[in-house]
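Data availability excerpt. The first of two example chains:
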Amino acid sequence: MATPLKGVIAAIATPVDAAGEPDLPRYLKLARHLLDNGCDALNILGTTGEATSFSLAQRQRVMTALKEAGLPMGRLMVGTGAASISDAEDLTRHAAKLGFAGALIIPPFYYKGISNAGMMRFFERLVSATAAQPIPLYLYHFPALSGVPYAPSLVAELIGAFGPIIAGLKDSSGDMEYARTVARAHPGFAVFPSNEATLAEARSGLFAGCISATANLNSAWCARGFHQGDDAALATAVSIRKMFDGKVLISGVKATLAHIHKDPAYAVPLPPMVTCTPAEQADYAAQYDRFAAG
């Protein structure tokens, strides 16, 4: 089994070309930049990576490109959840074959009101499909988008049934009491809230770290806050996060990436997202530069 993931993890954005295909040269450049500038690991093809807007083949192509480019697979988690159990099986097997350190599983998200028994059936298939080459599975709790929560009772059932293969949980609910409840109930189970502000609490060991969209932009400050106890740096990271309060996060992150890397191609999302207007891009750039200057 892979070494457990922990620390500052960016939910990396996925650049796209004019045809709407993953722009692999830009993607690999961004991945290397983040790993060299404060990120302990990367979450590939999550929500910020627009995974559900790509086809199965496109997602597999991104995954394969990381391996072929020689990136450190032990520092990469990849989203392999899908509404279709067959797609989830295919993606998760592909991740295991390539050597990813973990697979992040959003629940099957079309049908709502799914029972614990239904979710157990889903995971029985998924664990069985990867039995020949196991990969740590991380639960992706984002009920605002998926509509299907990983209730604490379900988390306990999954851990009880499948053991350490259920390695952790990314909590994008924003409900810190939920995150604390799950973490305290299962010592050694890696819980990752999605907001940089929790890194101060993570230093105590309750949480394994943080998986954040805005770590695309503030990873160096996050790393200083988490690993060095630099509260001023962490405050800067949190301020950059707050730039997007009430805004469309994916488009805003991509617009700011375009500014940071001086490359407008980074600003373009896939449909149904839209590119930020020039005025919005200028506002994000000005705010980022102000925080970055200290």
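And the second chain:
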Amino acid sequence: MSLFAFGINHHTAPLEVRERVSFAPEKITEALRQLVVCEGIGEAVVVSTCNRTDLICSLLDGNGESALEWFRDYHGLGANELTPYLYRYSERAAAAHLIRVACGLDSLILGEPQILGQVKEAYRQAHTAGTIGRELGKLFQHGFSIAKQIRTDTAIGNSPVSVAFAAVTLARQIFGDLKDHSALLIGAGDTIELAARHLRKVGLGRLIIANRTLEHAHELAAEFDGYAIGLEEIPGHLAEADIVIASTHSQVPLLHYEDAQAAVTARKHRPVFMVDIAVPRNIDPRIDSLEDVYLYTVDDLKEVIDENLRSRQQAARQAEEIIEVQTGHLMVLLENLDASESIRCYRDAATKARDEVLARARRRLARGEPAETVLDYLAETLTNRLIHTPTTWLRDKATAELATLNLDPPNNKEEEQE
């Protein structure tokens, strides 16, 4: 098998493209099962977050083009629509890419901790779907260990920089002291919990948490002395919020233009700060045109985030050195996996050949053939059966190496004529 990874992220594609190729969590299992029946695909994992969509595959044969074709077809995109934004990696580079993602080195926020949990969830989903086996299993488990080592041995996670932190930082720049202000958080996942934690730390006055599952909203609201509502109640509370932060897995906007327009009027044009962290977006982009609304997306937060990253740059360089070394170890491990499987298959075939040839030899002895003749038959036949596979492999490998040098294999007839 061989490794193949491809996808898009915040470095290569704008938000409009990223939201077109995101995977809804409830659809990933079925998508994975569709992917692994494509020609040449053995195992597969999908990592889909607000900033990236990555597919990591183990190939039985081919170069992964069938996976790329499936990806385009699944999202209804033409090659020209996707190719300018796409990256792809093979073998060692694919392994290193996954590890960099898991460590947070490829995140919008350098070293952010949430991505490791998201990669682990992607691994769990692939395990549930039955699309992960020995090769990707080893790759991901080793990747998790390296990510833990990097967070332990470097200062990559020391500074409080995250999308949620950046959102709260911007809110303070706009409003100053937040003790007399209210915030509406839409969602109840890790990012929203982190935003709630930062808001409470800076002394926010009042917190409202809206979620599709009201029970989850109540749990989070209770932790931060907030008030829980369902998504359908958002229009009735929107005018109360000076700050709105949205991060859910919804495939359609949850905050609509008409509701925002009504809220601005009810607020008598007091400014409202909105941050849409979700991909696809949870807040109707048209709301940005409303006066007194300051709407930011994940891409808009980059400038704020960059100011908080300088202390992590040296740690990132140390992390890259660790990844370089550990990826080499990982590739040896994966090669040994292939070797172990080949050895097992060869031993099984050798045992089967031995049993078959021995049974024939015994039958020949039973028919009264001379023992010496039967022993000669046994030795010659078994030797030929046992050396056939390795000699074929060595000949094919030698031919392939000659081909890379643009040399023709030896021609015995020409040598004899000379």
